[in-house]
Specification:
2 copies of one chain form a homodimer. With 344 residues, the first copy, chain A, is an alpha/beta fold. Chain A has 11 helices and 19 strands. Helices cover 29% and strands 29% of the residues of chain A. In chain A, 51% of the residues are buried.
Chain lengths: 344, 344
Amino acid sequence: MNLIHPVILCGGSGTRLWPRSRKAKPKPFLPLVGDRTLFEATLDRCSDAALFAAPLIVTGTAHLAHVEEQLAGFAEARIIVEPEAKNTAAAIALAAHRLPQDAVMLVCPSDHYIADVTAFAAAASAAATLAGEDWLVSFGITATAPETGFGYIRRGEQLAGGFRVESFVEKPDLARAMAFLSDGGYSWNGGIFAFRAGAFLAELAAHRPHIAASVAAAVGQGTELGRAFYPDPAAFGAIIGESVDYAVMENTARAAMVPVAMGWSDIGNWQALRDALPGDADGNRLSGRVEVLDCRNVLASSDGPRISVIGLTDVAVIVDGDDILVTTMAGAQLVGKLSGAANQ
Amino acid sequence: MNLIHPVILCGGSGTRLWPRSRKAKPKPFLPLVGDRTLFEATLDRCSDAALFAAPLIVTGTAHLAHVEEQLAGFAEARIIVEPEAKNTAAAIALAAHRLPQDAVMLVCPSDHYIADVTAFAAAASAAATLAGEDWLVSFGITATAPETGFGYIRRGEQLAGGFRVESFVEKPDLARAMAFLSDGGYSWNGGIFAFRAGAFLAELAAHRPHIAASVAAAVGQGTELGRAFYPDPAAFGAIIGESVDYAVMENTARAAMVPVAMGWSDIGNWQALRDALPGDADGNRLSGRVEVLDCRNVLASSDGPRISVIGLTDVAVIVDGDDILVTTMAGAQLVGKLSGAANQ
C-alpha cells in the first residue's frame, strides 16, 4: 500500500483548559497525559515508516515556535504557516495542494488523546484504503457516553473496511444523544479524516468554489522557506472560513466512515482530562505537589505550589503560574466564562 | 467601680487555620475578620479607660515580636514573657502575681472574635462585680448551635448579675450537645474569666499547691526589663501544665458565670471563620483576587494569586505563600492532619 501522509492541524486556542492552556502555550503543546505533549503524541502515532510518510503540519505564526521546538526528531516534517486561521476546509485544502494529488492524506487534530495507538493505525489503514477509492472518509469513533458536545455520524450501507455515511448529525441534546447511544448506529465525529488529495480538492471545488480558488491562488503565490511554506496572505485572507464538515463532508455523495474504538478523547475540558488520566485507588489524579484527604475522583495539578485538598469529590484544582482554578466537574463547562480565561 | 485589669493570653499556635496561620505568624496576629488582628481587636475591646486598666499580656518568646509590634498605641501595656508554655492555670497565676491582690483581672484569649463589643463590656462589668465578691467567674456564652468542640457550663442558682455554676461539662457528643441546646440551661465555656487576683491565687494554692508554689518562685526570682517581666525559667519549667478549667474552675466552691450573647466565635477552623465573616448575596466570603461562578457560601482568600471557583458550595479555598488549601467545611476539622499543617 502507498504511504499515508499525515496532515496535522495545529490551530486555534481554546479557553476550556485554562489556566493550564493559555494563548501563549495552548493545549496541543502541553503534556496533559503522560510525558509527551498532545502534539508530540499525534506525531508519534503517525511515525511508523511502514505506514506513514513524513508529516505535514498546518499551523499559524502564533504557534510556529512551539511546532518547531516539538518537531525535534521529525527531520522530514514540513510545515504550512497560515497567515491567519480560516477554519479546517481551507487548512486541509492548503495541505492537499502541497501533496501529490494521488496521495492519501490523514487529517489529524493535534489536541486529542488516543489511548490505543494500534487501533488508530488499523483504522488509518482501513480509511486509507477507502480514500484510495475516492471515498471521503471520517473516523467514526465508538460512542461510549451520551455526549452532547460532539457531532455524530449515522452509518449507512456497508463498504469494504467501513460504511457509507448516512448523515452527519449536529450536536444533539441529551435525549437525542441517549437515543443515538442505544441505537448503536451512530458514532462520534472526531475530526479525523482520510482523503485522496485530488479527490478532496475536486469535492471542495464542486461545493465551495470560492474557497478552492482562493486556496489555489494563495498556494500559487506562496513562498517556500526551508521546510516551511507560506501561502500568500492577500489571497488567503479573502477566504470566508468554514469547517470541512460544513463545506465538504455534508455535501459530498462519497462520504464514508470507518468505525474505531481507540480510547479517544478530545480533552475538551477538565472533566475529559480527568477521565483520560489513570486514577489511584480512590480515583484521584494528582500531579505536582498534592496531598488529599478523604477525596474521590479529584483532579489536582500544580506547576509549583503545594495543593492540599480535603473532603471533595469530582472537583478539579489546577494551579498554573499566578492562577488557581477550583471547579466541579459539571462546572468545567463554564471555565471559558471566567474573566481570567476570557482575558488571558 | 475599680478598673478591670485585662489579662490577655497570647500563647500556643494551632494548626486548624493552616496555611494562613503558621508557627511563624499564628492566628492571634492575623487580620482574619476586618482590618485589625484578633489580638489587636482583643486590646481594642479592653481599651475603654472608664472601665479598664492597662492590659497585661502573657506570651512566649516566640510571639514576643508580634506582640510588641501590635501593641503600638498601648503605651501602658505590660508583658509577661513565659519561658515556656505551661497551659492557662500557670499563665493566669503569673498575671495574678503581677497585679494588686485586690484587683479584678479579666482573662481574655487573644484569638477569639466578638461581634458585639457593647455586650462584651456589659458582661465584663457584671463579671467584675461578682469577682469583687470573690466569685471565680466564667463568661457563659449563649449557645447558638449544638457544638461538640466546646466545653459547656450548666448554670445553677441565680446571683446578682449572674449565676452559680452547677457544673462544667466536657465537650459533648452531638446528641448531648443538642440536648444542652434545647435545655437552655447550658452555655459555652469560652475561656473568658474574671477573678480577684488574690482570690484566684488562694484557690490555686488550695487545689494545685505545686503550680502555685512554682509560679510564686518563678515570679520571686524573675527579672524586669522595661515593660516586660521574665519569670525564672528553672522554677517555671518545673510546673506540670494544666488548664485553668481543670486546675481551678472545676474544683472551686465559688464558681459563677455571667451569661452573654455577644456574637462570639473562637474562629476555631475555616468554617467558623466563614461564619464570622459577612457574606455577599450568595453567602460567599471573598478576599484578595477572587472570582466565583455559581458558588454559594464559599470562603476564598488569597494573599496574591488569582483564585477562580466554579460550582461549589460550602468550600474554603485559602492561598497563602506556597500553599493552597481546598476543603469542604466539614473537612475543615481535618486540616491539622495534613502534612503541610503538621510540619509547618
